[in-house]
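Exercise 7b. Backbone tokens:
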């Protein structure tokens, strides 16, 4: 059984460097930020193990009914609200770069955001596996908290979650459209940065593609394109195989000044500051 001293938890005030944090929902109590709408800049995996009382979870202003042994993945930029009273379970907060590293090893449309806001009901076998991984993660989290181990455990955890999703989830037309859109963005975000391209390819208007994208993921096409580009820039900078000028050119920035301005606008750091940090 996981034990942790109750303390005031602010999920939107976590550290900047890569992390995986684990919190028990029942430890949050009245100090939780779930009581009011909040926007996060990292991934959050919620696992509900007990649901009593109010079972409505607000995500991007949409209402979802939650039940025991359900998991949902919350993407950066989404907004949520939850009455924590009568709820037990876990919140896994995952830094964007850490999550990105994990998804490079798991070929999952679910983890890539093609089917966001899908609540996954656990079967007994998957639940048993996740319980064991949770114990391992928490032991590491409360002792050495070594990121390389935490990331390995979380990769295994997310592998089983996404596998269950793909085995059991039946898609509707809206899900399929969003999946195709996200795949197009993944493939073309460097060379095609305007919504027109994605709307034309899918045979709809700009307005319609944004309506469906916003409803399914909480973000516009432009926001997804910008986030993908920022993640790619960060990855290239951390690899340290190219100069900043080469990275800018390879990613379609003709002017280094625009490259710097774009990156700072979305990260509050210049590329040089991010590299040095």
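Sequence design result:
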């Amino acid at each position: 059984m996981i034990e942790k001293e109750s303390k005031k938890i602010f999920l939107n005030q976590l550290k900047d460097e890569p992390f995986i944090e684990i919190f028990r929902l029942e430890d949050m109590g009245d100090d939780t930020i779930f009581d009011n709408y909040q926007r996060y800049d990292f991934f959050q995996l919620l696992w509900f193990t007990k649901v009593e009382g109010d079972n409505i979870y607000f995500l991007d202003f949409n209402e979802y009914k939650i039940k025991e042994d359900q998991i949902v993945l919350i993407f950066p930029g989404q907004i949520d609200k939850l009455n924590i009273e009568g709820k037990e379970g876990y919140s896994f907060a995952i830094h964007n770069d850490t999550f990105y590293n994990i998804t490079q090893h798991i070929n999952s449309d679910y983890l890539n955001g093609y089917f966001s806001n899908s609540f996954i009901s656990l079967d007994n076998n998957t639940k048993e596996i996740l319980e064991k991984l949770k114990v391992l993660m928490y032991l590491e989290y409360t002792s050495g908290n070594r990121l390389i181990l935490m990331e390995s455990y979380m990769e295994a955890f997310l592998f089983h979650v996404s596998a269950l999703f793909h085995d059991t989830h039946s898609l509707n037309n809206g899900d399929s459209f969003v999946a195709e859109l996200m795949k197009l963005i993944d493939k073309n975000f460097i060379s095609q940065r305007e919504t027109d391209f994605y709307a034309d390819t899918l045979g709809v208007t700009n307005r319609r593609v944004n309506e469906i994208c916003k409803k399914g993921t909480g973000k516009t096409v432009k926001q997804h394109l910008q986030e993908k580009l920022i993640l790619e820039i960060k990855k290239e900078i951390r690899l340290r195989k190219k100069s900043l000028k080469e990275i800018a050119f390879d990613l379609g920035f003709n002017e280094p000044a625009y490259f710097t301005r774009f990156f700072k606008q979305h990260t509050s750091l210049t590329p040089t500051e991010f590299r040095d940090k």
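Instructor comment: The radius of gyration is 19 Å. The chain is about 50% helix and 15% strand.
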